[in-house]
Amino acid sequence: MSRFDGRAFAASLSTGPGVYLMRDADGKVLYVGKARNLRRRVASYFSARPRSARIDLMLRKVDSMEVSLTRTEAEALLLENEWIKAHRPRFNINLRDDKSYPWIRLEAGHPFARIGFYRGPRKPPHQYFGPFSSAGSVREALNQIYQLFGLRQCRDSVFAHRNRPCLQYQINRCSAPCVGYISEEAYQRDVQAAVDFLQGKNEEVIEYLAERMEEASGRLDFEQAARLRDRIRSMQQVRANQYVTGGTMDIDLIGMSVLPGNAALHVVEFRHGRNVGGRTYFPGNLDEDMPEPEVLSAFLGQYYAERKPPAEILLSQSPAQARLWEEALGSRRGSAVRLRWRLRGDRSEWVRLAVANAEDALRRRQAERDHIGSGLAALAELIDLPSPPERIECFDISHISGTETVGACVVFGPGGSDKKAYRRYNIRDIVPGDDYAAMKQVLKRRYSRALEGNQVLPDLVVVDGGKGQLSQARDVMEELGLDAVPLLGVAKGPARRAGYETLIFGDQQAVPGPHDPVSHLIQQIRDEAHRFAIGGHRKRRQKRAQSSPLEAVPGIGPRRRQLLLKHFGGLQGLVDAGVDEIERVPGISRKLAELIAGHLKEVSARSSKSGQSSKT
């Protein structure tokens, strides 16, 4: 059952348009949707009105949500499509592929390529431009292309059987390649000019048309020259600008919002003209009086430390030492990088939207921190700590019938979870299913290393379990000389009901109740530890399932392993075979056959013993 508070999240959202994304506890995307009013749309999921079985199942799995603001609902629609294609969410009813939006397609494989309107999945080797927000905008763009460049519209079957020009030629919308009125070389130049035009390379196209106009004037074809002149003038009206897709530009947009001691920077990446996604970053350790240009400058250094910067970066304001940063980023890219912040037109709107996303994310993060802060203060009062804990470490154990046991440690503080400090531990050398021994091993490994490495120690250790688990933790901490670190056990409530957990500290117990801020905080921490432990267990189990016992035998590589399994029809047939039978496989000597048989018997015996222990 999800612990996500959807109503509280919805109340924190903007009333503007945008896209929302739901994730489960493992971080997988469950659903992507768009809204004209984000707050109202997201709140509708968590209202008391009846829901379908599919929506009800989805909401039970929701562990977190993300949103991205857009300028208009149409932009939200396009961005929703891009996110659905990127994440393939399970609960989107009709996964919107390229059939949802019209494209311009330039067909490959013909010396006189056809260009036209297209809906459907994009497949190579054809070239596609879009998506467009409406069929009307595509047709308008195509009309301009036909008039400017005279590319053919007819299908191959029609093209192959023409013996005289059609009406499109008569009205100056086709150059009639079907009857040889234009050479293949000249037609290819027109095709390239059309591609440049759709990609936003207006200057190159204007130069091309100007050359054609001069050629027409040179041969005294003034009527054609006049038409080309008019086309150059009208060229800027070709297609409506797109805020999610357009051109072939590689650009990063960075919008920043700053509060005393906190900052949010929303980065949107355009690659080949397509919005490939945005993400908000929250730099830590900021001084309250740190100037905004310095915050932005520090972010640029960290963000592009491991990324290749694009040729152009649009910023909401000037960073400190902007020209120096251009030089440094250009060196990293291997070509010039331009930082721009005095913007007009569309680019100004893009950056303004990035700033709106940063402001929205910072506001919600601040609200979350205030919520966690109140929980930490209440927790400190409940268990009699001198001050709210700055670092909490919570431990959990995960296994199935004692196999592939994994211990997990998650770290929380006033800013929420610190995922970089999370750790997993593969448990070994214990009786399968002995959770007490597993917890003891995890704690001992964790804090022995912490002491050896002089690492930061927690202000509170939380153990997912009752008195038995807490007793193991107390023994370990006393053994390591860390008995001054407070311990807290979290025992499950009646019928495992969330919010009714019993908190055990020292010789005392408390049940704060489902509405207490302490319960909300402990549930959040405990559930995160549980999720992280289960994830580690699943990975370990999957790795074991995909491995072969033959991999541990010296002298058996992929080719011999394949020969053996093929010869005996699988691993079980090989396990049942004797040394003489194994030796008959080409490339397997007597000595190697004995090694294989002995190793497989050992593995079989260990598996049998482990199974008996699990049943016990």
Provide a descriptive summary of the structure in words.
With 616 residues, the chain is an alpha+beta fold. The chain folds into 5 domains: 6-96, GIY-YIG endonuclease; 103-237, no CATH class; 251-362, Nucleotidyltransferase, domain 5 (2-Layer Sandwich); 392-544, 2-Layer Sandwich (Nucleotidyltransferase, domain 5); 547-615, Orthogonal Bundle (DNA polymerase, domain 1), CATH 1.10.150.20. Helices cover 45% and strands 17% of the residues. It has 20 helices and 19 strands. The chain has helices at 6-11, 38-45, 53-61, 73-87, 135-149, 156-159, 167-170, 184-198, 202-218, 222-234, 292-303, 322-333, 345-382, 435-452, 467-479, 517-546, 558-568, 571-576, 579-583, 590-615; strands at 18-23, 29-35, 64-69, 103-106, 115-118, 127-129, 251-259, 262-271, 274-281, 312-315, 338-340, 392-400, 403-413, 416-417, 423-426, 460-464, 487-491, 502-505, 508-510. The strands form 4 sheets. Strands 12, 13, 14, 15, 16, 17, 18 and 19 form an 8-stranded mixed sheet that branches. Helix 8 (184-198) runs antiparallel to helix 9 (202-218) and helix 14 runs parallel beside helix 15 (467-479). The longest helix is centred in the middle third of the chain and has 38 residues, at 345-382. The radius of gyration is 33 Å and the shape is globular. The protein starts with 5 loop residues before the first helix and ends with a helix.
